[in-house]
Fold:
Amino acid sequence: MGSNLLYSIESFPPLPESINKLNELCMADEIDLKAVIRVIESDPMLYTDILRFSNVPYHGFRYPITSISQAIALFGIAAVRGMALTAALRAHPFTDVAPYGIDVHQWFRVMEQQQRFLDIWLGKKHRAILQSLGGLTFILEIGRLVTSYVLMFTHQSYSFSENEPEKLSIEEKNILGRSSDELAAQLFEFWNFEKIFVNSLCYSLSPDDGLEPKTCAALKCARTLFTLKGITPFEEVEAVLVKYDFSVSDARIAYEILLAVEE
Structure:
């Protein structure tokens, strides 16, 4: 990686200190839930946004969630960490993804669709996959923001034209020498996120190269179906599902549920 490219990644504005503390706690062999709650409650932005995310109508709870401990009990620590990462990105000083032909609201919307699809699909039979990802499912397109920052930092102006995720990665490599996922993985490694988080992010479109191919394959399905430029037909992921021994019908049901909600 060229020195200018590496320097631009390392100069990316950092996440709040509360995220760093939360990250350290979540990487421990035994997670101290009381400490996690204290960290979140000490940051008004994280506290407010996590409760807001927890109470969206999509979840269908009859009664409001009023505490972080409730949110953790209902969604799990990985999901709450993902909510915290999303909250931090919403407040991030750099939110320009214009090189991809979308605005920041559309960018967040795509990541929300991907996360909901994975939650509906994997929530019952593959909960361990969601837990292992430590909240990554909430920010699968983070690389697009990192790439946009690198272009800005290196004074390059470019508009990406490819829509299909794998072709878009090739276009990114042609312009910067690295895909957006590789750049984002480099950044999160610099921020000391755990190895499986970084690796799954880096190989979420090329599962066979990842440490946990089946986990990466699930991420690939979400990103293939819910792209920066719209929703693609379910048939696009059937071969991946079969190859990695997922139930095609379970994934299709999740896809159709989400489409019905979108309508």
